[in-house]
Amino acid sequence: MDTVLDRPLTTKTFLAWEDRQEGKYEFDGRDVIPMTGGSVAHQVIVFNLLVLLRRLLPGQPFQTLHEMRLQTGPRIRYPDVVVCAGPLAQSTRTLTDALAIFEVLSDDTATTDRVDKLIDYAAVPSLRSYVLLEQTAVAATLFQREPGGVWIASAHISGALVLPGADITVSLADVYLGLTFPA
Q1: DSSP result, 132-167
Q2: Which of 33, 72, 78, 152 could covalently link to 123 via disulfide, CB atoms 3.0 to 4.6 Å apart?
């Protein structure tokens, strides 16, 4: 952060501050967290996921976005990939709603993604799926719920993920296309 603040941030003041920055930052309701770049595996997984989701959702009222700012109560997060219901204005800078969220795990972010973001994303009433994707192996954890309900987790190392709400099936082989992992 290039500014020393003399008072605690609110979500509103954080958003105004971040809009003036060159980089991206998350806000956990108290602290500003700089976003860093990911590995090649991270980038390949995100790219494959975007291509796959756009192919699976043509002509449907969903929008698939990459690293789009999402407000969850007082917190601001940047999911790797988010699927939103309905068309969005091109000028939209902050999402407040989502149907599915995908995060690619790394050593630096795994605990935050598995614990803090799971709690944060629970505050998004329309969210039906939260998917954690490993980048060191073909493996995914799918958290799913009915709107406002409890999370039900399932682990996957092959096959496909069925995303409720969007009624699509995401093949793990397609998500990890082009990557190889030691046996």
Answers
A1: EE-SSSS-EEEEE-STTS--EEEEESSSEEEETTTT
A2: 72
Instruction: Flag whether pLDDT at 95 surpasses 80.
Output: yes
Residue 161 pLDDT greater than 90, yes or no: yes
Q: Which two tokens stand for residue 106?
A: 């790394």
Tell me which DSSP letter residue 168 carries. E
Tell me the Cα Rg of the chain.
16
Backbone torsions φ then ψ of 118, nearest 5 degrees = -60, -45
What is the C-alpha to C-alpha distance for residues 80 and 43, in angstroms, rounded to an integer?
10
Span 12-37, average pLDDT: 78
d(CA 76, CA 11): 8
Domains plus CATH for the chain? 39-175 (3.90.1570.10)
